[in-house]
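Study this one:
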Amino acid sequence: MRIIAAGILLSLFTYGQSAPVAGSQTTIPPEVLELLIIKRVAPKLSKQAKKLNADLLVSVELDETGKLQHFDFISGPDELRQPTATTLPEWKFGPYTPAGVGVPVKSALLLSFGVGSRISKRGTPIVERDDVRGMLRSKPRPRYPDEAKMSRTQGTVLVKALVSAQGRVLDAVVMSGPDMLRRSALDAVRLWEFVPLVRNGRATVFETDIEVNYALQ
């Protein structure tokens, strides 16, 4: 599951766990709310829900201490709403203190589920190894180095790749594997092409780990 910026929207569907915050509130952008998050709790999804590539848009209200007081589901599949409603109260937020004193706030979260829903430290979606195999469009075979053949070197090279919105490898680095096979694997992966990852209706850059296997006949 990942969180990305969402516009401030009025609630269309109420799934609150308690009464809304009383008194005046300050509306803050989602990117500011993101900075207040101290603890996230991923929902436990059913097998059917795990197959979904979908988003939940949630309006949230925090009190002056950062405690979650109320949330509304604005849009998203029912299969994701119930498990999220169970875990969202467990999230922890810090107080919003624009003038040194905490104030009640209202904002929005966009929770994304499915392929590319996990986010790297640089803020890029991560596509898991099992998922990225189905996204391959072109996969030139790596050359088996002569010195590796002579020494009977075999094994798996793990490559971390950054893929463009067009599906081409922008950058790649070897994470592990036999030294004799690393350059060959890196050169091959840089030529691979993928079906673009589409999130929220737009193709986006993503990261993934790729295993390149070498085995002598």
